[in-house]
Write a structure and sequence with these properties.
By secondary structure, the chain is of the alpha/beta class. It has three domains: 13-315, polyphosphate kinase like; 326-424 and 444-488, 2-Layer Sandwich (Endonuclease, Chain A), CATH 3.30.870.10; 503-683, Endonuclease Chain A (Endonuclease, Chain A, 2-Layer Sandwich), CATH 3.30.870.10. The strands form four sheets. Strands 14, 18, 19, 20, 21, 23, 24, 25 and 26 form a nine-stranded mixed β-sheet that branches. Strands 10, 11, 12, 13, 15, 16, 17 and 22 form an eight-stranded mixed β-sheet that branches. A six-stranded mixed β-sheet has the order 2-4-3-7-8-9, sandwiched between helices. β3 (160-166) and β4 form a beta hairpin. The longest helix has 38 residues, at 72-109.
């Protein structure tokens, strides 16, 4: 499944993504993972797949549909990618259905029963009918299929029932309808009354099936059939130069045959009668490039992420309360502590409240003149924004750069932007042509050193509970000065600014990374220590990959921890013999970006917001900072080394999708996230 690019092995990003998402599915299939967590992984897998089809598959489909002769090569390439995606999706879908069945059966052994409409007792049916009359009635509105031209205007975030309604008249009249399940209001699962110490749940789908006589009351229908289906829309053309450099810009303007929002993947209950299926598909206006899959009785398994826990905490991961670092606790000023010495937190192991407290102190301290911050995603009830609004009301000059194009968070970001502007905060909406993805804060003091915070992840309380991210808090003048320069660059983009300490894209980040890799090659040839250790989310940039292959050929040991997309193919003789890649899937989502270079024995360590992808290195404003504090350096190296030693959750990423676990003979089983939590719980309390 590799495609030759510039004469070196390169696994297409979208195929590598399919391998990554399967690692999540495999976690849901592991018997040693708590049952409720397996349900969550099933939901994550399904939700990921929806977004993947909505964006990535949509982009490839548009390329195929572009008829300009100058794009024939790109069109054939996209066809090949879509073919591989469909093949893998078909295989993984069968595995997924098996996993759902196995988890459901295992829950029954723990006295948790997910019953269908055909399994409910008379008492349960009475409860369901009452539930419909008191809550659901009025929220369930069938639409006759004959009354609509298409389903283009309907919501692909939800699940639908296609209904075949029968009248017992002389003509055996049949009519066809569909309805949208009100999941956003009532949730996907309804808890029925417990009985004999057993918990009973039912899909909202089946509640509606039970109540179809009430839904169609007064219309003289006698029997009903109802089958689930879902569809995924073409969300947008993803123009980040990750598909084909340059061509996408032209294609996105030239394609007229597919308007935004058309369905491109449909999954339906395989038992749906052909006459009903035919009518549904006709209303979805599909073409030969779209994916139509027959599935099980239930669709939209992303709802499994919110599966009721039935008060069974024994079926979930044991609680790991975030550690409030001792050095950041107490009544003393955190701003003063940061001025004395660099500090760091590693969420969610460490409490994100430490950063919130920094902002809150800055908001009320009379020693603070101004606050600048970049925001990419914001929590629903953001304490970060509340602190910034408080600062503005206290007379501080507050500047916020908020990225309105943070995919799937646009609406939330717009809402918060208006509130901040109303409070007197100066709000910048990113930079035209450059998505602002850096995670930086600058606090200007009236007395003493200014302060900067540089993070690998969003300033988002919700993410900080599930995403592993590192944050440096520093008063180092050489770093703080350049963080402030980044804000100057955002306000006046494309102006020539020279960064000596920070690695900033799109300025010279890629060039500096290439230089760092070149240094390792030179040091290896000179007999000096030479190695590269990186923890990152994605690696797809061709220039970086080719340089890593060159380093490998020259004997540089390269150890990578890559969560998602990875276009490197390992184990290719004479090319990637010295590259090892780990993919970790566990209770937390691995998100921190950490870069370690041997540098001839004087190790260089960096953290920041950028992955090794074209979009991050060439088309976004990203910031990577060096770590100078010796203690924090060791902490960053520990995080990477623990990940590389993980044999319980770390899988081999080699470019073939086998996803086998790493195994080190003679070594005890090792789980990096658990080891890190235990370490921080011991040393930082």
């Amino acid at each position: 499944m590799t495609v030759k690019k510039k004469e070196f092995p390169y696994l297409e990003r979208d195929i590598s993504w399919m391998y990554f998402n399967r690692r999540i599915l495999q976690e849901a299939m592991r018997p040693n993972v708590p049952l409720m967590e397996r349900m969550t992984f099933l939901g994550i897998y399904s939700n990921n797949l929806d977004e993947f089809f909505r964006v990535r598959v949509a982009s490839e489909s548009r390329i195929v549909e572009y008829t300009d002769k100058t794009a024939s090569r790109e069109r054939e390439h996209a066809k090949n990618i879509l073919k591989q995606i469909r093949r893998l999706n078909s295989i993984y879908m069968k595995e997924y259905e098996t996993a759902v069945h196995d988890v459901t059966q295992a829950l029954q052994e723990k006295n948790i029963f997910l019953v269908s409409d055909t399994e409910v007792t008379p008492e349960q049916l009475q409860f369901i009918n009452s539930y419909y009359k008191t809550k659901l009635s009025g929220s369930v509105i069938p639409i006759w299929l004959s009354a609509v031209k298409s389903l283009d205007s309907d919501n692909d975030e939800n699940i639908y029932l296609a209904i075949k309604a029968h009248k017992q008249d002389s003509r055996n009249t049949v009519d066809y309808a569909f309805l949208e399940l009100p999941v956003n209001i009532y949730g996907r699962f309804i808890r029925l009354p417990d009985r004999d110490g057993k918990c009973y749940l039912i899909y909202l789908d089946d509640v509606i099936r039970c109540c179809l006589p009430l839904v169609f009351e007064g219309l003289d229908f006698k029997t009903f059939e109802a089958y689930a289906f879902k569809f995924t829309r073409d969300a947008e053309m993803e123009i980040d130069n990750d598909l084909r450099n340059g061509t996408l810009q032209k294609i996105s303007k030239g394609v007229k045959s597919r308007k935004r929002g058309e369905p491109l993947r449909v999954i339906y209950d395989s038992r749906m009668p052909k006459d009903l299926l035919r009518r549904v598909l006709r209303k979805l206006d599909l073409d030969k490039l779209d994916t139509v899959l027959d599935g099980g009785r239930y669709q939209n398994h992303k709802d499994l992420m919110k599966f009721p826990d039935c008060d069974r905490h024994d079926l979930k991961y044991p609680s790991w309360p975030s550690v409030l670092k001792k050095e950041l606790d107490g009544a003393d000023s955190l701003l003063h502590k940061i001025q004395q010495k660099d500090r760091f937190i590693h969420v969610p192991y460490h409490s994100f409240d430490s950063f919130i407290r920094v902002l809150q102190e800055a908001a009320i301290s009379k020693q603070v003149r101004s606050i600048k911050i970049t925001l990419y995603r914001l929590a629903k009830d953001s304490k970060v924004v509340k602190a910034l609004i408080g600062a503005a009301r206290n007379g501080k000059k507050v500047t916020v750069v908020i990225e309105l194009l943070a995919r799937f968070d646009e609406e939330s970001n717009i809402k918060w932007s208006k509130k901040m502007q109303d409070a007197g905060i100066k709000v910048y909406f990113g930079v035209e042509g450059l998505k602002v993805h850096s995670k930086i804060t600058h606090i200007e003091m009236k007395t003493g050193s200014d302060i900067a915070c540089i993070s690998t992840g969003n300033f988002h309380e919700g993410n900080a509970r599930t995403y592993t991210d590192c944050m440096l808090m520093t008063a180092s003048p050489r770093l703080v000065k350049e963080v402030n320069m980044v804000f100057d660059f955002i306000e006046k983009p494309y102006t020539p600014i020279k960064f000596r300490e920070l690695l900033v894209s799109p300025n010279e980040m890629k060039k500096k990374f290439i230089s760092l890799i070149n240094d390792e090659i030179k040091n290896k040839k000179a007999g000096k220590p030479a190695y590269i250790k990186v923890k990152i989310n994605h690696i797809t940039d061709e220039v970086i990959i080719e340089k890593l292959y060159e380093a490998s050929r020259n004997g540089v040991n390269i150890d990578l921890i890559v969560r998602g997309n990875c276009s490197i193919v390992t184990g290719v003789p004479g090319v990637s013999d010295n590259i090892r890649i780990h993919g970790i899937i566990d209770r937390y989502l691995e998100h921190a970006r950490i870069f370690v270079f041997a540098a001839g024995g004087e190790e260089k360590v960096f953290i920041g917001s950028a992955d090794w992808m074209p979009r991050n290195l060439d088309h976004r404003i990203e910031v990577i900072t060096p770590i100078y504090d010796p203690e924090i350096k060791e902490e960053m190296k520990r995080i990477v080394d623990f990940g590389l030693a993980d044999t319980m959750q770390g899988r081999i990423v080699e470019g073939k999708g086998s996803n086998e676990f790493w195994n080190y003979p003679g070594e005890k089983p090792f789980r990096s996230q658990e080891a890190l939590y235990n370490y921080y719980s011991t040393t930082d309390k």
